[in-house]
Write a structure and sequence with these properties.
By secondary structure, this protein is an alpha+beta fold. The chain has 3 helices and 5 strands. It binds guanosine-5'-monophosphate and zinc ion.
């Protein structure tokens, strides 16, 4: 189902034009308007799901299979040296458009981009406490 006033619903379903790379019954893949690197693309489901939590399991699986195919295509055609898959859920995680999407970011040696975090240094006890919190 589409959601009124969702820009990615409109783009995915062709109501708003985009630089489209691929389309099938369930998905459209487009070039990002603010690319982190040449070929930065977005996989958009045609049905609205705000984020990964809302995405039906079957579509989640299909999206990852499509990500694999698009990663190979982008790598072959753009001759990139690697690729990042990024998928943000929630404002705290950097999500700005509330329609599930997967970023495919081709990477080039020395491109100067930063898709990184500052690593923490937890003790074994702290790691164990987190493990318990998740599993209990
Ligand atoms: P998020 O921060 O939600 O994970 O990523 C949203 C992405 O959508 C950003 O990389 C942004 O550049 C891209 N974006 C936002 N609006 C549009 C649009 O209208 N068209 C396209 N092609 N990309 C968009
Ligand atoms: Zn939507």
């Amino acid at each position: 189902m589409r959601k009124e006033d969702c820009i990615f619903c409109k783009i995915a379903n062709g109501e708003i034009p985009s630089k489209s790379l691929y389309e099938d019954e369930k998905f459209r893949v487009i070039l990002d308007l603010g690319p982190a690197a040449k070929g930065h693309s977005l996989i958009l489901p045609k049905d609205h799901a705000a984020n990964l939590y809302e995405l039906p399991e079957k579509l989640a699986g299909d999206a990852m299979i499509l990500a694999k195919k698009m990663a190979s295509l982008l790598t072959e055609k753009l001759n990139c040296d690697g690729i990042n898959l990024v998928q943000n859920n929630g404002e705290a995680a950097g999500q700005t458009v509330e329609h599930f999407h997967i970023h495919l970011i081709p990477r080039y040696k020395g491109d100067g981009q930063n898709i990184n975090w500052v690593p923490g240094k937890p003790s074994q006890e702290e790691l164990e406490a987190v493990r318990k919190q998740i599993l209990e």
